[in-house]
Amino acid sequence: MDVISPQVMWIGTRCYRVNQTKSIAHQATNLNESQTYVEEDTYGEDDREEEYAIDVTSNGKYQTSFHVPSVFYALIIGTKGQTRQRLEAETKAQIRVPKQGLTGDIVITGTSRKAISTARSRIELIVTGARNKQQFTHFLSVPLNVPEVIKRFLDFRHKVVNKLPRAFCVDESLFQQPDKLHITLCTMSLMDNEDRSNAAQILLDCQESIISPIFKENGSLEIRIRGLEYMNDDPHSVDVLYAKIESPVLQTAANQIYEYFLSKGLMQRKYEQVKLHTTLINSLFRASQTEVVNEKEAERKRITFDASEILRLYGEFDFGSLVLNEIHLSQRFSTSCTGYYEATAVMKLRNE
Q1: How confident is the model at residue 103 (pLDDT cuts 50, 70, 90)?
Q2: Pairwise CA distance, residues 343 & 236, whole Å
């Protein structure tokens, strides 16, 4: 670990430092990563108890309950119950976790609101750290599969596949499927139905809190897709080639939606703002006509391509303009009857 710039994790408005400890692969086969112990940033008082629904029981104690996907239970309990015992000793709260094979809420009971909120925030840190080690299952997407954009994309693909000198040709299998052209705003790992329902509701909440004010000020959300960029430093050895998105209004909306999802604990901060782009060519697509299921295996097989001539000839290629209508919570590795990804939820973008 870099002690000068350690890994940090944001949950809500608070920042935590992450320390790696020994492997606990034997605890949960689905989470074969090292356990993460998270040290709270102690600069200032923990003010999170106001964020939680904490009830008073009939015997005068305080209690809160909340959902955690069952795949994370083993991490909360720890080897021979050691993690739960440590949390209970340090927070002076009792933590009840559903038994193996069962689902339900985590229930925390204690004699003070402070004990309850501290125990809950510590558990949420464990879960968030473990969630971020999973391959993402869903992503927020802006569909771009309208006729004009698809037509220009197919024209671009034809030029790259058939018109360039042989040394610079890119196989058609590396191109994105036209019906799945999209902008990715952020990715997340949703582990069960309640996770998916929660993420869907968070997206719909963005309609009133983020989208409506933006529409009142701007009237509509229009973008232009123009120009090429690549993901690494060498145009002769490129992994991903994408088209740039021109839209200050969408940039504002995307950043605010990203921040809102971060505050809900469904993902960890990976960048300061959303980079708006749509993938055109991805060398990982070589292994599959759609997308790669095993990311680690695919990375080992990744073969870069020379994009220098593509950038020279088509670096300012115009893929068209459109007014955006929807943002989807899309399911990865899926295809709907329209050819686009299956949607777990859809937020309409319209001025009402």
Answers
A1: confident
A2: 36
* Per-residue H/E/C for the chain: CCCCCCCEEEECCEEEEEEEEEECCCCCCCCCCEEEEEEECCCCCCCHHHHCCCEECCCCCEEEEEECCHHHHHHHHCHHHHHHHHHHHHHCEEEECCCCCCCCEEEEEECCHHHHHHHHHHHHHHHHHHHCCCCCCEEEEEECCCHHHHHHHHHHHHHHHHHCCHHHCCCHHHECCHHHCEEEEEEECCCCHHHHHHHHHHHHHHHHHHHHHHHHHHCCCEEEEEEEEECCCCCCCECEEEEEEECHHHHHHHHHHHHHHHHCCCCCCCCCCCCCEEEEEEHHHHHCCCCCCCHHHHHHHCCCECCHHHHHHHCCCEEEEEECCEEEEEECCCCCCCCCCCEEEEEECCCC
pLDDT at res. 51: 77
User: What pLDDT score was predicted for residue 41?
Assistant: 42
> Comparing 100 with 140, which gets the higher pLDDT?
140
Q: What is the predicted pLDDT for the residue at 119?
A: 96
CA 257 to chain centre: 12
What is the CA angle 276-345-123, rounded to 5? 85
- Is the full-model pTM beyond 0.90? no
Report how far residue 277's alpha carbon sits from residue 346's, in angstroms, rounded to the nearest whole number.
20
Task: State how far the Cα of 198 lies from the Cα of 64, in Å rounded to an integer.
Answer: 18
Give just the sign of the alpha carbon dihedral 106, 107, 113, 116. negative
Amino acid at 141: S
pLDDT of 9 > 60? The answer is no
CB 231 within 8 A of CB 239: yes
User: CA-CA distance, 200 to 202, in Å (whole number)?
Assistant: 5
Distances (CA, A) of 57 to 112, 259, 310, 325: 12, 35, 67, 47
Which of 282, 275, 276 has the alpha carbon at shortest distance from 176? 282
CA 214 – CA 208 distance, rounded (Å): 10
Q: Which two tokens stand for residue 274?
A: 């959303």
